[in-house]
Each structure stands twice: as structure tokens, then as C-alpha cells.
Amino acid sequence: MTQISGRYNLIQEIGKGGMSTVFLADDRLTGQKVALKRVLESHSGIGPLALGEDVRVALAQEFRLLASLRHPNIISVLDYGFDDTITSEGMGYPYYTMDFLPEAITLLQACQDEVLEGKVDLFIQMLQALTYLHRRGIIHRDIKPSNVLVDAKRQVKLLDFGLSVMRGQQTEHTSGTLTYMAPEVLKGEFATEASDLYAVGVMLYEVFAGKHPFHNNNITHLIQDIFHQTPDTSLIDAPEAIVSITQRLLHKSPSARYQSADEVIADLTRAIHRQPPKETNAIRESFLQASALVGRDDELAQMMTVLDQTISGEGSAWLIGGESGVGKSRFVDEVRIRALVQGVMVLRGQAVSEGSAAYQVWRGVVRWLALVAGINAHEAGILQADLVPDISTLINKPAVDPPPLDPQASQTRVQALILDLFRRIQRDNPRPMMVILEDLHWAGSEDLSLLQRLNQIVSKMPIMIIGTYRDDERPNLPQILPSMNQLSLKRLNAASIAALSETMLGTSGRLPEVIDLLQRETEGNVYFLVEVVRVLAEDVGALDQIGTMTLPEHVFAGGIQRIVQRRLNIVSREDYELLRVAAVIGREIDIDLMRLIAPEKDIDQWLAACSDAAVLDVANTGMVEARWRFAHDKLRESLLDELTPTQRREINIRVARALEAYCGDDPLKIHKMTPALAYHWSQAGNTEKERNYTITAGEQSLHTGAYQEAVDYLKRALELYDRSDSSRLARAHTYRQLGQAYLGMGNIANARLAFANALDLLQYGIPPGGWRLQVQLLWQVFVQITRLIGLKPRVSDKIERAVLLDIAGVYEKIAETFYFANNTVYAIYAALRSLNTAEKAGLSNELARSYANMCLGASLTPARFLANIYSKRAEQVADAIDDMATKANVKLVTGIYYAGIGAWDTAEMNFKSAAESYYRLGDSKRLEQTLSSLGHMHAILGNFDETIAYNHDIGITASERRDEQMIASSHIWRSIAYTMRHQEAEAIAMLNAVESLFTQSPDEGICIIGSGAKALAHYRQGNIELGMLWADKTFRMIQNTAPTSFSLLPIYAAITGIYLNQLASKPDDSSLRTRTQHTIKTLKAYAKTFPIGKPSVWLWEGLYRQTMGQSQKSERLLHKALETSINMRVPYIQACSHYELGKIMVNPQKRQHHLQQAREIFMEIGTEYDLQQVNELLTIQ
Questions:
Q1: What are the residues facing 317 on neighbouring strands?
Q2: pLDDT tens digit string along 884-911?
Q3: 3-class DSSP state for residue 605?
Q4: Nearest Cα residue to 405 out of 926, 874, 914
Q5: Do residues 266 and 136 share a domain?
Q6: What is the β-pairing status of strands 105-106 and 148-150?
Q7: pLDDT level of residue 171 (50, 70, 90 thresholds)
Q8: Is the pLDDT of residue 43 over 50?
Q9: What is residue 1146's DSSP assignment?
Q10: Spatial distance between the Cα atoms of 966 and 124, rounded to a whole number of angstroms
């Protein structure tokens, strides 16, 4: 089966013309059947009567024209694109899709079985379509039976606008179908409305005479007849009035024909003794809602410039704001149409107001991405959980559930996958893309988080993002999305009001009194303007009659609210009540849900009635199945505002019960509808049901990374709990989740408070400090010692075990908050409590993580020998439970421990194993943490190229996630490597870019490393004063901070080296000597915890002894530094030791040996600054 763009499966050919073929196709994205019109692959680009016209351009113009039309008797187009065929232009063959009309026949065929009135009715429908077109200045130019179809409901549909032009538009060649071509067109004159009506006359003749009016078997005779022959009207089997109408339509002179389709309609209805058909709501809406875009020329030109830049590879993100009703959707739709015809893939999503599911605004977008990019079963599982419940059906393969992750990692994984799908498309099938996200004022935090990440990558890709929002409802959105450019749509001015009025009303729309009324009543708000015109049309009977009526001073004294209410009052009382229910549910109408709510009601009839009243309409974005919705949210808001509290509560009960019935036991439906159920039960006042669904909604939000929503849901759930002892465990679990949500937001203080509340409910806690903390810490140490010697109590009760694991998890998270705050004592206490509790519960993920955490904790205490024991136990438990995420965590944490003791090979093996697992899990943040640790290790080992490479990759992904700490870290460590390679300017530029991030970070470690890196870079660049300024800043932080990470070594060593270098030239500076002594003391404290620091201690201690004139002791210490650096495999300290020994050696051979050794190592690791100093000494020799 042929597939187009990964979306459309071609089923069979259903039509063929000179330039294109039409296929019946299955739309995989929406599940609907569509008609797909595709340029013939063998076509040369020249049509039989359109010589020289480019078929690609013609198809694009046809789609663009049709996309701007909306009329019940004109075919609706859906999508435009290019297939995967490789052409010389590199774009493939163009196609567009439109509504499929099953069982459709031509107008001539449909008339065969109709009586006179039925035939006239079909012609009137076609003429109504022409009235609409001609009022918009469009000449069809190819009216013929095959382009006028009648569907199974006897509704006429006009199609094939490939030859259409605007009134007065010059064309190079005569175009159209000869048998239906007017004489003036055949002569090469402009086609006019009368030309289209001539073709109607030919068809009218064929229907009532049973044959064509001319000899159409011979082209020469046909042309002669068109110019000179008068049709034989005696053959017409119809009343004389029909004969007269036909004669006039077929007149050789266009001026003698009817000048408008309305005139023909009027005469046809008189011919069958009927009144002219009333202007139906559907037809009226076609003029009101699908009028031309006016008043946005500057804004549209700006967007077209941006679109051109996108197509050339320079993407950008735009936030389009404006008040409700100002025309944002119409404007964006015009941009969308223009993008489509230029070969841009357009993806569209929309936020909703109440009870929205996670990533609501991205769901339509991601469905399309999954189809186009191609995803495997594992990726499908990631998307199924949070965004696309029917992903297996969509891609026609089963999804595999992904390994479970903690909430933050889960959010990172799904967002990283979505970003990768964008990249994958650009890599495998590069083409420009446009992502339209509407109503972002309702978007959730997870929606905006993903948008922020996508904004970070679009500048270097052909992707244009457009988001719309109501600036009066969420005015701070630009501050939340600072990387997006802003465009504000204002109300229309007087000239634009006049132009819009004319497109809706025809020539009467230009009357000064009409324009004055519209300007006075609406002040240029497009929605208000349309509503005022609709009211006037209802009063007079038709749009084109408004100019004949006496206009009122005011349409309504009550303003737009009264107009909206009048619109609603058209609906019958019975239908109105169901509208209220629909309003409570949301803007979109869920038809299945409405049938459950009102099983006695004919929902199809209700939809039709509300549509006729212009209260409901069908939204078709081309991304999902067409959906019924309120025509404007103001209609829905008006319905909600009039509800009494009692009515609102009763309706919400009906909706909530229907939702529960709709979901049944289907987990995917329950997952999707949980937020809505929580909302409706809250509005219904049922606190028990609200609590249950709110807890689940909070858990879902936490899992998807919608942390603010999770906090809101979980805090509400805690308010709804009773205070009985039976709810204690449940409340504790909810507090734990609340703490995790706060952690995800970076709110450490509130996270710790939530965790403390959880522990209080579980009758555990955190000691207040002082002697109580010391006593509790000693007790936990004692408990752990008993466990180490073999006393390991276990619980068998499942409930008790679950509670213990909850407690262990809470303490684990509390330990994390204290670790970030550099509070070692509390961190170790919490880690011990977590371990002691987890051991009682037996094998678990918590136990493995606790052992790993205690491995690090023990390495920071005098009981360092325990670290290796905990490391082994962590690995044993992780292997036993065989959970990928837990194994990766253990490998990462124990890798950090092994790096600190200099077991480089084991550390690297663990880091790489963890990195591979985190990559497979899609956990970008922990992957970055792992690669960052690898980069730190390689910096200590002198492998600066690896340090730069690892941190370059980290910088890219961290920027996408907007993780400021990781962004700062990646810049800092690259700067350290650049400084060591004597590229201080590059290093300083990198540090300047993130200075505000690391100086203001709550993580003291990153502050120290960043400040120390600045000190080293400036000092080595020769800016001694600035280097010392940053060195002193770093020194003050070091004084107040215990070493907790092996990665601090380069900074401790750098600050000590700077002070020693200064002290060598200023030996009498007591303050400098004191600072130097303190830094060496700090370095010694570091080396007690992390043995990899010992070579640096001996080196700097040796140099300090030189400043005191203790030459022999200095030499012994330098030799010790050389020996330990070789044993520890720390080449930079090894080279420095050789260098310093070479400087003090009296024996020329030994001096030469050490300097040559230093030179070789510095050359090998690429430390140009040090290499220059060695070379200077060797030159002097």
C-alpha cells in the first residue's frame, strides 16, 4: 500500500484529471477517510489548456484558496504537503487532502432522478456557492459537472479550484474546459462572474434538454458554435421561465447575462412558484466566519519574513498575544496556510481550560511527530504513558512499558524524546516545520517546560514556533517564556473595519453609516464586530440587506454581553439546558460523553440545532479528528456566568458520573480523565471523590514533571483528608509526594518541610540540632554497627514493609536536601536513618540506593573503611532486584567514591555503565551528572580534551532543559581545561557567560569551583590583581566548607598554587602567608577524605617549605609528591613535581632529567602554560 508522508495510506484512485489524480486515502493521524489530490508524477507541469503554468504553483494556489473558504456547498480542505518522491526541486510532488464524499455523483447524474423542484434546488445550492465566491472576488473558471458533486445527503459540493482567479486578475493563457467555456474567455478576455454563470447555463441546458447545447464531438465545430450558434431551446423540457433563464445564461455577450448568482436564484425560485430561499445560518456563517483577513498586513509581513528565515534554516519562537476576540486564531490560520503551500510541515496543538490532561497542548503535535519520525516500541511506551494513549494503534505496533523512573527523571525522559523526534526528522528527512500552540494562557507548567526546551534548539533548525495567548488573562506569560519573540494583535482601525465589513456584506459594507455603527459598537474587536453584523442580519433577514435598513443608534444597550445572550437565546429551552452541561465540561464537545449524560437526547440533532444558531461549530486543524466546540469561548463563559451555585453543583455531578461511566475499567481512559474527574467532583462538593481523584491527578502531574500542578493538587488533597488516625499513612505518603514536587521545582525549603511533615505523621522525625542531633546520630551509628555484625531484623507484613520503604524514601530525599546545603552532619544522619529503615524492609530499590549513599557518607567520615563494604552491598542488592534505574544510580554513586580514592579504572567503568543505562532510560539529567563526573575525573588525570568533550555535550542538553546548575558546571569545567591548555581568553569568556549562575547558586560546591576557575584563568593570563581578588573570594568560601566532593581538588590546588606563587615574591606578607597556610590545611583535610589529594598536599607543602628556607625538607616532600603522583596516576602533579625538583637540583644531570620529564608530561597532556615555563628553564641551561 502506497504511503504519503508517513500519514496517508492510499486505498484506491477515485478521480483523474489532466494535472492530478485523486485518491481515497486513510488518514492514520485522525483515523478518517479523506480524498487526496496529488499532482501526476509523469506530468510535465503544463496542463492541456493551461500552457506554461506550473502545476505545483497551481495546486498550491488551489489549496490556499480553498483553505480560506468556508461554505456548506464548497469542499473543505484539510492538509497540504509534499510526498517522498525525489524530484529535481528536492521537494517531492505536492498534494492536498479534502473531505471524502462517499457515494458522491455529479450534479447532472443527481438531476436524473429528481423532479423539477429537486433539480432547481440542486442548482440553487451551486449558485449559493458561487454567490459566496463572487462576493469574495473569486472567479472559479472551471464550472462543469465533474466539479459539482452531490453527496449522499443531496448536498451540493463545488470543488476543483485549480484554475480559479481573483476578479480582474490577468492570466497568461486561456484556461478552463472548452465545453463549458464562455465565448469571451475563449477570445482571451478576462473571466468574470458572468463567465461562471455561462457554465451554469450550459449545465442547466444539459439537465433539461438532455444534451449539450452545441456540437461537442468536433472541436472546430464546438468553437464555432460557442462563438456564433444560438442553442436550440425548443429541446428544453421545462417551464418557459426555466427556458428564459437558460437563454439568458447562455447569451454570447456577458453584459446581457445575469450579473450575479443571486439574480439567477431569484428567477429560478419564481419559475417554480417559490419564495427565494432564506439565508440559512450555515450560509450566513460562511460570510461572517470565513471573511478575508484584514488589518494585519504589517504583522503578516513580519511573519512571512520569519517564515522565509525558517525555511532557510534559521528558526525562531513567537508569542502572539491579544485580548479575547481580537482575531488571533484567524491570523495564525492565515500564517499556517501560507506555510503549508511553501512545503512547511505544520503541527498544531491547543490547551484547554479545565481538567486538562498532562501535556494537553502537545498531544496533537506529538502524534504527528511519532508518525513522521518513526519510533520504536520502547519510545512508544514512553509516549503512551503521558501523551498518546492510543500510540499502539497509531503506529501499528505494541508499545513496551518503559522502566520506571523518579518524577524528575521521567519528565526529562519524555521531553528529551520529544526533542529528539524533532531532531530525527531534521536529520533523516529535513524539512522546515511550524509548531502552532494555541491558548497558552491555559497551558500547564509541563507544557511550558517542554516549550522552553524546544525554544532552546530552534534557532539552529528550520523550526518556527507560534504560541497564542490572551494577554489580558495571563499577562506574565512573556516573562515565563523569555526566549520567545513577542507580537501583539491590537483591535482593528477604521479602515480595517471598513474592509472587513465589505467582505461580509458586499458593497453595502462600505456605507459610512454601517462603518460608523460597527466602529462605535465594537471598537475594532473582530469577534464583537462579527456578532453585531450577525444581529443586524437576523433583524433584516439577510446580510446583503443590511444596507437597506435604518440602522439603530446602538445594537444593544447592554453591549456585547447582551449580543452573546441573544445568540444563546436562539437555542430552544431543551437544547439550552444541554448546552449548559457542555459549557461546564469545557470548550470542546465530547460527543460520546454527551450521549452518556443525556441518553434520551438525539445528540446529532442537538449539534445541528446549536450549529444553526452559530453557538457550536466544527474545528478542524488537520492534526486530529474534527471536533465540535463552542464557536467562541465567550458563549461558553456566558452560560457559566448565569449558573447558580446549586445548578453548577448538580451539573458537575452529572458530568462526573458520566465521566466515570465513560472510563469504566479502561486504565488509559481513567489516566486521561483523572484531572477532569478531580475538577468536576470538586465543583460538585463531593470531598471524598475529589480527594481520591485529586491525589491521583497529583501523582500523574508529579510523574510528568508538572510540578506546580502537582503541588496544587497535593496541597488540595491534604486539605481534604480527615484528621483521623486511619488517614495518617495516606497523608504521610501525600506529603512525601508533595516534597518531591517541591524538589522538582528547586524549592528546597518547602521540600524539607513537606518531608518533615511526612515523618511526623509516621512518628519519625529530624532532631532539632545540638546535643540531640549528636545523640540521635550516635544511636543510628550504633544501630548500623549491629546490622554490620549480622543483626538484621526483617518485617514480613506487606503494609508495614510499604510504610518502612516510604519512610526510607523520605529520609533519602531529606539527605539529598542537606547534601545540597552542604550540611554534612544532617546529611549523614538522614542517610543512616534511610539505610537502617530500608534494611528492615528487605531487598528493595531504596535499600540499594541507601547502601550507595552510605558508601559516599562513610567516605566522608573517619570510618572510611566502611565505604568499600557499602559499595559492595549496594551492587549486590542492585543486581538482586535487577532494576535498571537503581543499578545506574549505584554505579554512579560508587563511581564517585572510587574516583575519590584513585581507583580510576573502576570509577570509569562504573561511570560508563551508569551513562549507558541512563541513556537507555532517557534520563538526561542523570546522564549529564554521570558524564560530568567523568569529565571531572579526566581533568584530574590531565585528559583535558575528554573534559572539554564531555562538558560540551552536557552544555547542549542542559541548555535544552534550562538546568542552570548543569549549564554553569559545563562552562566552568571547560574553562578549567582551556586554562590548563593556556587558552585563558576562551576560559574567561566561558566563565563570564555563567558568572551570575554560579555566584548565585545555592550549591556551594559550584560556587567554589566557578570562583576558583576564574581566579586561575585571570592569574595565568597575567591579571594578577583580578586573579587574587577571585582567589580570596574562593578562599573565604573554602574556609567555611568541608570538602564533600572529589571534584574540588583542582580548585583547592589552584588557590594554594596562586598563593604560593605570590608568597615566593612577597615572603614577608603575613596575611598572604596565613591564607597560604590555611589553604594547605584545607588541602590536607581534603586528602584525608579523598586520597587522590595526597600528591597535591606533598607538592604544595614542599613549595611552602621553600618559602620558609627549609630546602631539605622541601626536597623530601617534593620527592614524596612525585612518588605518590606516579602511584595515583595523576600526571599533572607528577610533571609539576619534576619541574619543582628540577628548579632546586644542584646536580646538572638530575636537574636536566627532572625538567625533561616535566617537559614530556606537560607536552603529552597539553598544558601549554606550564610547558612554556619548563622550556624557559631548559633554554637558560
A1: 465
A2: 999 999 999 999 999 999 999 999 999 9
A3: helix
A4: 926
A5: yes
A6: antiparallel
A7: low
A8: no
A9: -
A10: 68
**φ and ψ at 1148, to 5 degrees?**
-60, -40
* 211: CATH: 1.10.510.10
pLDDT tens profile 1004-1039:
889 999 999 999 999 999 999 999 999 999 999 998
Number of folded domains in the chain? 4
- Same-domain status, 265 and 154: yes
Is residue 145 helix, strand or coil? helix
Which three cell numbers mark 1056?
594554594
Domain identity same for 342 and 457: yes
Grid cell 450560509 is found at 283
162 and 211 in a common domain: yes
The confidence score (pLDDT) of residue 493 equals: 84
Report the distance separating Cα 984 and Cα 974, nearest Å: 11
Helix (H) or strand (E) holding 870: helix 865-881
Are the C-beta atoms of 500 and 526 separated by less than 8 Å?
yes
594-644 pLDDT per residue, tens: 999 999 999 988 998 888 888 888 876 555 566 888 888 888 989 999 999
Residues 6 or more apart whose Cβ sits within 8 Å of residue 955 = 967, 970, 971, 974
Angle separating helix axes 328-341 and 297-311, nearest 10 degrees:
40
Give the pLDDT mean for 230-246: 94
The parent domain of residue 480 ranges over: 297-488
- Domain final residue, candidates 277, 305, 333: 277
**pLDDT at position 788:** 84
The C-alpha cell at 42 is 509523469
Q: Looking at residue 659, what is its pLDDT?
A: 93
Model confidence over 958-989: pLDDT tens digits? 887 778 889 999 999 999 999 999 999 999 99
The yes-or-no verdict on residue 173 having pLDDT over 70 is no
Same domain, 112 and 257: yes
348 conformational bin, left if phi > 0, alpha if psi -120 to 50, beta if neither: beta
Could you tell me where the DSSP H helices lie in 457-508? Answer: 477-480, 494-505
Q: H/E element holding 317?
A: strand 316-322
In angstroms, rounded to a whole number, what is the distance separating the alpha carbons of residues 1168 and 942? Answer: 12
Which long-range contacts (C-beta less than 8 Å, at least 24 apart) are formed by 858-862? 859/897, 859/900, 859/901, 859/1089, 859/1090, 860/824, 860/828, 860/1042, 860/1044, 860/1089, 861/828
Output the DSSP codes for 254-302. Answer: GGGS-S-HHHHHHHHHHHTT-PPPP--HHHHHHHHHTPPP-S-HHHHHH
> Rounded distance, CA 1142 to CA 1124, Å?
18
The amino acid at residue 520 is R
**What would you report as the CA-atom Rg of the chain, rounded to the nearest whole angstrom?**
38
Please report whether residue 754 resides in a domain: no
pTM above 0.85, yes or no: no
Is residue 1165 assigned to a domain?
no
Q: What pLDDT score was predicted for residue 44?
A: 39
Which grid cell is 1146? 644542584
CA distance 1116 to 1109: 14
Residue 973 neighbours by CB under 8 Å, 6+ apart:
932, 935, 936, 939, 947, 951, 1009
pLDDT tens-digit readout, 775-815: 998 998 898 888 888 777 778 788 889 889 989 999 999 98
Q: What's the confidence (pLDDT) of residue 259?
A: 93
* Integer angstrom CA distances of residue 205 from 210, 459, 476, 782, 1014: 7, 60, 64, 105, 90
**Are 244 and 382 members of one domain?**
no
Please give the pLDDT value at position 282. Answer: 61
Minimal CA–CA distance to 193: which of 143, 268, 233? 143
Q: Which pLDDT value is given to residue 355? A: 64
